[in-house]
Amino acid sequence: MLSSSRLSIANFHSAMRQLVVAASAAAVLCLPVATQAAQLNPDGRVSLDDYIERGRVQWQVPGLAVAIVQNDQIIYAKGFGVLGLDQQQAVNPHSLFGVASTTKAMTAAALGILVDEGKLDWDDRVTDHLPYFQLSDPWVTHEVRIRDLLSHQVGVGRMTGNQLRYMPTASRETVIRQMRHLEPEAPFRSRYVYSNVMYSAAGEIVAAVSGMSWDDFIAERLFAPLNMARSNTSITQFTADDDNIAWPHQYIEGDIVPIQRRNFDNVGPSASVNTSAHDMAQWIRLQLGEPGVYAGERLISEETMQQMHHPQIALSRSDRNEPVRAYGFGWTLDSYRGLATSSHGGATDGFNTSLTLVPELDLGIVVMTNTFENYRPAVVNEIIDRVAELPAKDWQREYFDAYQARFEQAMEERERIEATRQTGTQPSFTLTQMAGRYVDDLYGEVEVYVNDNGGLSLHLWNDGQSLLDLEHWHHNTWRASYHNRAQREKFVYFSMDAQGRVEGLNVRFTLRPVLTQVGLYPTNYYRDVHFSRETTPEAP
Fold first, then answer.
1. pLDDT score of 486
2. Where does the record place the Beta-lactamase-related domain (predicted)?
3. How many other CB atoms are found less than 10 A from the CB of residue 8?
């Protein structure tokens, strides 16, 4: 059941929808047409519309939306393609897309508002506000500050992201509590280690301090004052009468296909916002010009805005000639052709977003697509080049050629893995001997069962969603394929004890594949998990 405050926000969204659509159509043309044309369609270059559309077709992106803000005005907002291959309804600036990790900066801003109100400090201990917060190391647990959560300095690494769904129906608190079982990937504050769950903890601090859920706080303290009337924090907030919502797609086995919507509620503060190009332009306006001021009203202090875009930790770089890169609070701090930038991407198995700010030009760009792709950076770079009057460069070709080379390399690596498959082998155990319940402190439970087709299946977390069918690979190794095709597959193998009985189930969880379009393997970032058998069957 929705809280009364959530209901009021839902009613606000419904009441404002038509007004915003009508009013913003004029806002797109707030600068003289000649001024926009001179900036975005300089002589000698194809029009920006044609540039974006040509690349969209080349990259097989079903739908795409772009907004450009400069000098506190939306100078461009347009949709391309369709909301979904099955619907064929055109994308427009008000179409909703899942913007994934660009949510993180919004969570940081929510905390910033509470800092401005004197209700917390960036250097407060997390346990001061979340007494249940616990990591594997008691000293680290006691020392983790809000600043560490927001700058990815805790060291625990990933549990969710892209195809990996971890306890998808569990509450945020439940997922955060599980982190006491996660061994760190790096020592505390030693380096940048990206973590969605730590941002979820940051969002729960917002709830603990404000007395309202993170979702309601974002809706009332950010979306409402920024006139982001189309935006929400969960796919559960979509309404039946709203047909302007993009559908996620994925490249699977040679085709771009629609896939299931993904619910990020269990780590919502890190990735769950759904918004439009027009609404995201309002968020951009808050960052640029006089940071923290929107439509003449200060929403966040100058000092707090500076903290969010201030380097908190250095990021890796390819060599010493590359400019220094850093991470703020939900923003990557970088440079482009001599121009300082603040940016962040958002990536899931069905949506991709690029949000880039160029403060020197008072310029902000958002590009949102409804499939996982590598095209957005070409659009962002082309727009900056045009506005800054930089020398032209064929970004489309450069990114497309690089993607093709990477795709071929990943496919070759996948084929090498598959070539190691040994034919003619048999498992050491019968299906009924492998069936049973297996458990791990961090990853919970797995049920292995004989399915209706006479084969083996897995059920993670008893959630009715995380279902996989097993295909015998060789010996005691099986390839497990999700019922949800977008989540792809993983390898598992059964281990034997000294008496020749099934002792455990070992699962390789892919934290990030080499290339999503190819599949969950090959991967260079994974976690091997051993699930112990709860009940031991007789030896074969």
1. 87
2. 49-381
3. 15
Q: How far is CA 360 from CA 41, 295, 307, 364, in A?
A: 21, 20, 18, 10
Dist. CA 373–CA 396, nearest whole Å: 13
Asked if 504 and 494 touch (Cβ cutoff 8 Å), the reply is yes
Indicate left, alpha or beta for 287 from its phi (over 0: left) and psi (-120 to 50: alpha): alpha
| CA gap 467, 473 in Å, rounded | 18
pLDDT for 12: 36
Looking at residue 232, the DSSP 8-state letter turns out to be B
pLDDT for 85: 97
CA dihedral 179, 181, 187, 193 (to 10 degrees): -40
Could you please report the per-residue DSSP string of 265-289? Answer: GGGHHHH--EE-HHHHHHHHHHHSS
Alpha helices by DSSP H, listed for 277-430, are 277-287, 302-308, 376-388, 395-419
Q: Give 3's DSSP letter.
A: -
Q: Is 488 exposed, middle or buried (0-12, 13-18, 19+ CB in 10 A)?
A: buried
Give the model's pLDDT for residue 322: 86
pTM of the model: 0.91
User: For residue 471, what pLDDT is reported?
Assistant: 97
Quick one: pLDDT at residue 412?
A: 98
Which neighbouring-strand residues pair with 98? 274
pLDDT given at position 26: 35
Neighbours of 43 (CB within 10 A): 5
How confident is the model at residue 2, as a pLDDT? 37
**Residues pairing with 530 in the sheet:** 506
Tokens of 59: 């990259």
Neighbours of 262 (CB within 10 A): 22
Sequence-distant (≥ 6) Cβ neighbours of residue 536 within 8 angstroms: 497, 501, 502, 503
**Which among 357, 372, 337, 396 is positioned nearest to 488, based on CA atoms?**
372
DSSP-derived pairing of the beta strands 255-258 and 444-450: unpaired
CB 475 within 8 A of CB 425: yes
Please list the ranges in the chain whose pLDDT falls under 50.
1-34, 539-540
Strand partners, 460: 446
What is the reported pLDDT for 162? 66
Distances (CA, A) of 524 to 23, 163, 408, 410, 517: 48, 15, 16, 11, 15
